[in-house]
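Hi everyone, sorry if this is the wrong subforum. Our group has a chain we'd like a structural model of before ordering constructs, and none of us has done structure prediction before. Sequence below.
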Amino acid sequence: MSGFGKARAARPAGERRAHARFLALAAALLTWAGAALWASPAAALPSFAQQTGEPCSQCHVGAYGPQLKPYGRDFKLFGYVSGDGLNTAPPIAAIVSGSFTETQADRTPLPHYSANDNVAVNTVLLAYAGKIAGGVGTFAEVSYDAVRDKYAVSRIDIRRAFTGTVGKTDVVYGLDVSNRPGLQDLWNSTPVFEFSTFTSQFAGSPAASPLIDGKLSARVAGVGGFAMWDGQLYTEFEAYGQLDRNLLNRAGVATPATADRYQGTIPYWRVALQHDFHDTHYVEVGAYGLEAERFPGDVQTAGTDRITDTGIDATYQYTGSKRHFLATHATWIHEDAQLHAAHLVGKTANSDHLDVMRADALYSFENTWTPAVEIFRTTGSTDGKFFKTPNGSPNTDGYVLELAYAPWGKKDSPAIWANLRLNARYVGYSRFNGRTAGASDNNTFMIGVAAAFAPFGALVKR
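Answer:
Right subforum, don't worry. Here is the predicted structure as tokens:
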């Protein structure tokens, strides 16, 4: 049993009392988070399997990810260092993905491609994912966009975890360094690892999204601390700062001179409650957020804008069967933008707001077949200068239907250090960038394949 498992087993006796305490704390957390709102390509990496001796299905729903099972959250909490002691090779992983993409209406073609019905190798990813030394582990990626012929340092998360007690409470605590707020999160109900990472460069995407929903990805670096209290309450705080423009450009993250600049520290916070009910039903509820001071367009003569994002999230998993696994996730993000500088520089409104809701449900049969559905909705104020949509509205509504098939990633697979996933996905829009007319022109059908392998995995003798 892992340290996290021991922490859970060491809870005070009286399961009914534990359940009641969780429900009371969850209700209080949701009430507080709701008041705060109104007041204002990830995948299973076979290098982890190489290190632990466990197949991808041990950590991931559907044997491929990105959704984590309890073992996967445990592995991440403890810093990517758990293993069976037999691996001495570097934990290197590679993923190659390709797709066929068809949109309902033709789009402006990308260089060397057609206006529709494109077949392409989308992405090549190389990762160092696992133990570095001692108790330090990492999940670090370099990606190559084969469609646009661009490389970039993408996601980096470095962790060091410790165990201890505070009074009679078991605590797992540690330090974290990452280059995107939320990358270090243990749950799939926040923006970084939610639902599925299967997307296409040939598909359209809504113009508006909150700052916390990827706009800072790979553009910042942060350091902070986290703690899991008694296996139930998770707290985290991390302070981010924007990286130098020249460094970002050298790392493949395009940052022109007119890109927004963020002043000082960007604080990110996270709190979540989790509980297992009879080792059959798992529930998590939480909240997260950040605040940033921004020079729009890097103009530093008109003051700054203040962007505040606050989100709430929830996860449910049915964990009582080895053949059947059910998971649902939901998140709601509210962004409050006080545009003091943008109003002077770019003639935006004095303030704007944005609300994003996403919810998904997926069912995995024998870690092989995984159908899933997602609904999403974005609403906000009307401001063409800020949201950059034809009528100024950011409002978008739609859904996603997906079927995934992963033949490997199980104990009886040919090798635990290799994996394969096939996807079929349909994205439908009833409203797109503020308009219902023509929204369905952005509907997209995709078929994808992703192959993942750890090149040194065959060297490990078990």
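For your construct planning: The chain has one domain: 3-459. Confidence is low (pLDDT under 50) at residues 1-13, 21-41.
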